[in-house]
Amino acid sequence: MRVLLTGVTGYVGKRLLPVLLEKGHDVICCVREKNRLTIHKNLLKKVEILEIDFLKNPILDNFPKNIDAAYYLIHSMSTSSEKFDALESKAANNFKTYLESTSVKQVMYLSGISNEDKLSKHLNSRKKVEDILKSDKYLMTVLRAGIIVGSGSASFEMIRDIVEKLPVLITPKWVLTKAQPIAISDVITYLNGVLFHDRCYNQTFDIGGPEILTYKEMMLQYAQIRKLKRKLYSTSLISPKVSSYWLFFITSVSYRLAKSLADSMKTEVICENNELEKILKVNPITYEKAIKNAFIKIKQNLVLSSWKDSIISSSLGLSLSDFIEVPNFGCYKNDKSIKVNDAEKALYNIWTIGGEKGYYYANWLWEIRGFFDQLFGGVGLMRGRTSPREIHPGDALDFWRVLYASRDKKRLLLFAEMKLPGEAWLEFKIDENNILHQTATFRPKGVLGRFYWIVTSPFHYFIFKGMIKNLAKEK
User: Fold this and answer.
1) Which of 133, 159, 232, 395 shows its CA 20 to 30 Å from the CA of 223?
2) pLDDT in tens, 157-197
3) Cα separations (Å) of 444 from 77, 402, 448?
4) Topology of domain 314-471, per CATH?
């Protein structure tokens, strides 16, 4: 069967893809940019890639007509809180227009549990998308999930950041809100199980794990699993805005996502219609088991996908292709070059930059820069890396976004997602003569941008000089 998969560069879609291929389906991957699809080359050979932006007006001419089923896994939780509702509605309407021009039989949508009378803005938006996607031209299956737990999920990483970093937790009142967390492995099982299942046509199901827990209980269970002694106290004195900043400074989420999460966490997400468990004969795993499974993946460096991989986890919401060409006109540059004796070792150093490894020189200055970035609403260094050794285009790397990464061509290009009065690139390249070239490019915006470069230039001189020297070292 031919299955169209959207959101394939996102957290859930990237994990669903290999399961669909294993079942023998022909999969069409819809992506905004082809170079964002960072999957194993063996999988890449088996899929058809369709470059399409659902926020742009539909062009039906080149859209495939022979589609049997489609997954709609596009969400915009990290985008501007003023625009996300309109963006989600537009994308859903355009997707529907495309699909109604095909022979598709079934469309599946992963939504959020919305059984409360008063919903957060994002849960309201998800519910609205459900209504938009319904059509007389195809059969609809909606799965509503609450907190998804797994290596790389936003909920797991948020709890991980909070509990690992703070021995005593003074938390907002929303930690007493009840939820029904579900393991990412069970989400994938459900998404795969409803495909072409006649008892799931034109149905809506809630999906969750076997336990109903408060966020406080989730945090304390996490601490117990990790053998950490933690004290947690909740207070109503922390306002919603302060709550957003609290999440932002403590965890790796951006301020926009922190604001969305803080808003959503005030709403209970508990399953009501969970008959799908019986229909598909699924035995969901416990929250404890989900946490332990997540750490198995982390320890083995097998985190397949992360919420940070999505381009909308940044503060920009821009296409990678907008910045793949590093400009020269009107820019300031810091160029450094050095001869390397072992190109492979230097390349290994470049490929492991950032995250826990740091930047090979004056890491404390990078940490200060990250702190000030967060202070002004940027992402800081909190996002880290998805993998300690692998880098792919589109990956988040601290406060950078990977634009280009090729070991064969020995080149890595990063674009800054920190708060800046301009745009910045950092490029590493080893040429055929084993010369390592390191180039920092800054395109200022106005007088403030030029002043910023002048003030920071002395720091750049020492930092970049020390960094390239250490990157070139064999040991």
Assistant:
1) 395
2) 788 878 887 788 787 788 888 999 999 999 999 999 999 99
3) 30, 20, 8
4) Alpha-D-Glucose-1,6-Bisphosphate; Chain A, domain 4 (3.30.530)
